[in-house]
Design a protein that fits this description.
Blueprint: E1 4-9, H1 16-30, E2 36-41, H2 47-54, E3 59-63, H3 80-86, E4 90-93, H4 96-101, H5 106-119, E5 122-127, H6 131-135, H7 139-150, E6 162-166, H8 180-198, H9 200-205, E7 207-211, H10 219-224, E8 230-233, H11 240-249
Helix pairs in contact: 1-2, 1-11, 7-8
This protein binds phosphoenolpyruvate (PEP).
Phosphoenolpyruvate binds next to β8.
Length: 251
Amino acid sequence: MRRKVIAGNWKMNKTPTETKAFVEELKAVASGKDNCDIVICVPFVDLQAALEGTKGTKIKVGAQNVHFAPSGAYTGEVSAAMLVDLGVEYVVIGHSERRQYFGETDETVNARVKAALEAGLKVILCIGELEKERDQGITAEILGKQTKVDLLGVTAEQMKNVIIAYEPVWAIGTGKTATNEQADEACGIVRDVVASLYGKDVADKAIVQYGGSMNAKNAADLLKCENVDGGLIGGASLKAPDFGVIIDAAQ
Ligand code: PEP
């Protein structure tokens, strides 16, 4: 049995002050819910507050991006070593909003994934097809290419620290959720690609999340799907009671 991972992606929301208050609420709703892993991926400036607030709890903290170079002339960027030094455990890489608005490609995603893993971070790697790609019937090809290129050079041992979040781009922040069948099928396709790269044992253990308008109402059904090992949740992770319902559903 794979353990489910429920991760919130706050995007560009919440100040450090709001983070402190939110974490207190989240601790109350997450208390005693020990049958899944809980992660909050917050803006860089909120990391310290999130880490301090969650100390001694099972709630883990992640960043939403990381640079691929160890240090140097990259104004405005943050390295993997900086995140590790702060106590951050997870990092989201390749989110579709970064691909769409910030020129992220599979090649830069791959470089970030390798830098993060080498520094000891756990990676939540986001992949997913555009609506027009689904309409063209090429979802499997897109997921295959993204998985293969984004993981180039990642070893089977390092795969223990990789979560893949299948996030159909058309479902992110749109309120349009994939059906349970679409989510299960796509997560299964990703697992098959992982099997082709690393073998069945690694694929059977790999955590493949679904992300895209998962919320308090639809989470229970999505999380029942055989190939869906948790969720990457944007909007619905910003309200502790809603996030709490999703955590409950993963129990
Ligand atoms: C996300 O940001 O990864 C996401 C899935 O957003 P939302 O849940 O708001 O669609």
